[in-house]
Design brief:
Length: 420
């Protein structure tokens, strides 16, 4: 393992006794179905089956990490490995990485994915300093793959059986090559599925090595209860040994890696039990309470009323509370439309010092993304001062809009007229 960083406990056996890794469970959804997975639980590809995680919004994840860092001084790796796939909701994964990098620029960033939707984000991953990525590739023959994956979803299209297998494989290979072009270390996990792929995994090893993968991990299946393979026997020691020995003829193999969970925190095999309680606590954290967010952003035409929808606001007015009342600070230009969900992530960055955003309307998707940045979004009409009093002084808001009073986004398609 030539270019593998020395302090990553999963990639360096010596480091595994000294350096801890932390998983941030910020990926709630998945874009494929593996027949050994029951999505009531965490992603089996990098986690213990049958374990259910809390899910954190990006702002909650970074707050949790700051608190954890006081107790766990030897964290070297910050990873995202579930509970679903990090690239089923790439905006949450990238936003988390961006926030974490601001606070912990020296840590190693590591991701685990099924690989289906990684290729479009490789440049951003490299820019964010992600140095290690794990893909689970269980087969390179679509005829075998289709037994493992009943469907995969790309965008709004669902592919099934053989087509699903072909699409998944194409995207995995493409992403692997792109990641290696960026110098990112790539580990490939293969789940040993007796009678399905156990004799095929060495072929996977040969192929991924030829594309530049650095190391492989062959993991015996423990299918989740309720999954398609729930009755599948676990591979015996002979099968595991044989598979690993044949794989080793093609590529370095990882042997010390223990199954972890999407919210693992600590040394490999010695997770910090109190982290689970902390996660539950931070998962309940409300946006906009942070004292390091002194401002409130307002969508207004003239500076008196809250009367703009977010999608039509070319700029936002920023206010703060002073001893002499509320004070206008500045106008901030909003990100231009045309970049899909990234527009709203940029908006979250733009307002990273704001505890709330007052708007007359906002679509569901931007609402979700901006709230995930830690900003309380209030849809209201009426005087700006009334909204500011609600945020800064917890006063009741008479002009708060009913959630369905304006179906923002129904007719808008990112043309500066709305939020979709
Ligand atoms: Fe489950 Fe992970 Fe497979 Fe998604 S990628 S179906 S979460 S095992
Ligand atoms: Fe990275 Fe996987 Fe190790 Fe987590 S378990 S730190 S995702 S290699």
């Amino acid at each position: 393992m030539n270019d593998i960083k020395p302090l990553h406990p999963c990639f360096d056996k010596e480091s595994s006794h000294k350096h801890a890794r932390v998983h941030l469970p910020v990926a709630p959804k998945c874009n494929i179905q593996c027949n050994y997975c029951n999505r009531k639980y965490d992603c089996v590809n990098e986690s213990r089956p049958g374990v259910t995680s809390a899910v954190l919004a990006p702002f909650q994840a970074v707050t949790y990490l700051k608190a954890l860092h006081h107790q766990l001084k030897n964290i070297s790796v910050i990873g995202i490995a579930g509970p679903g796939d990090p690239f089923a909701t790439p905006e949450l994964t990238l936003e988390t990485l961006r926030l974490v990098k601001e606070t912990f620029p020296d840590k190693i960033f590591c991701l685990s994915s099924n690989g289906l939707n990684v290729a479009p984000y490789v440049n951003e991953l490299a820019e964010l300093g992600v140095s290690h990525v794990t893909f689970t590739i269980n087969a390179i023959d679509p005829a075998i793959s289709q037994i493992i994956y009943p469907w995969v979803r790309r965008g709004k299209v669902v592919y099934r059986k053989l087509q699903a297998a072909i699409v998944l494989l194409e995207q995995q290979m493409k992403a692997l090559v792109l990641l290696k072009e960026k110098g990112i270390t790539v580990k490939v996990n293969s789940i040993i599925l007796p009678g399905v792929n156990d004799r095929h995994i060495p072929e996977v090893a040969r192929m991924v090595k030829s594309l530049g993968a650095d190391v492989m991990n062959c993991i015996p299946v423990v299918a989740s209860a309720g999954s398609g393979f729930e009755k599948m026997d676990e591979p015996d020691a002979t099968m595991i040994f044989r598979t690993r020995a044949l794989v080793k003829e093609h590529i370095d193999i990882m042997t010390h890696c223990a199954r972890c969970w999407a919210e693992a925190a600590g040394l490999l095999g010695q997770d910090m039990e109190s982290a689970y309680g902390m996660l539950q606590e931070y998962a309940g954290m409300v946006p906009g309470n942070s004292t390091d967010r002194p401002y409130v952003a307002v969508a207004t035409h003239e500076g008196l009323l809250v009367n703009q929808h977010l999608g039509e606001a070319g700029s936002l007015s920023i206010y703060r509370q002073t001893h002499n009342g509320f004070k206008w600070i500045e106008h901030r230009d909003t990100p231009k439309p045309g970049t899909g969900d990234f527009r709203w992530m940029e908006m979250g960055n733009l307002l990273s010092d704001c505890r709330a955003l007052l708007v007359s309307g906002v679509g569901n998707k931007p609402l979700e993304i901006i709230q995930n940045s830690g900003i309380r979004v209030i849809q209201m009409t009426g005087l700006i001062d009334e909204g500011l009093e609600a945020v800064f002084e917890n006063k009741p808001l008479r002009t708060v809009k009913k959630p369905d009073a304006f179906k923002c986004g129904d007719t808008c398609r990112g043309n500066a007229q709305g939020c979709a």
